[in-house]
Amino acid sequence: QVQLVESGGDLVQAGGSLRLSCAASGRTFTTNIMGWFRQAPGKEREFVAAIKRLGGGTSYADSVKGRFTISRDTTENTLYLQMNSLKPEDTAVYYCAASRDVVLTSNCDYWGQGTQVTVSS
Known about the structure:
Blueprint: E1 2-7, E2 11-13, E3 18-26, E4 33-39, E5 46-52, E6 58-60, E7 68-73, E8 78-83, E9 92-99, E10 110-111, E11 115-120
Parallel strand pairs: 2-11
Antiparallel strand pairs: 1-3, 3-8, 4-5, 4-9, 5-6, 7-8, 9-10, 9-11
């Protein structure tokens, strides 16, 4: 099993920045990819960004490219999401996720409890 605990969500003004963290514990070596999803009120959960455990290759949703950066600290088993130039439409609950698969989809194996990000206009 893998446990994921997010932190860093907050209320921020449009144009501001936030950094989300996700502390991973347990059998993290069994996962191949980690990343972030988000879910806004009344909307489906959507992919935000992912990073491969081996090699560190990254991928992003088009809506966040150039503004968000995913990274990891392998020594501390922590995943990060640096969010810059935030927009009101980035408001959502952000979830950390991990999968034993080679791609990150909404059917991934492990989820965190979520952290709220609210961007005011």
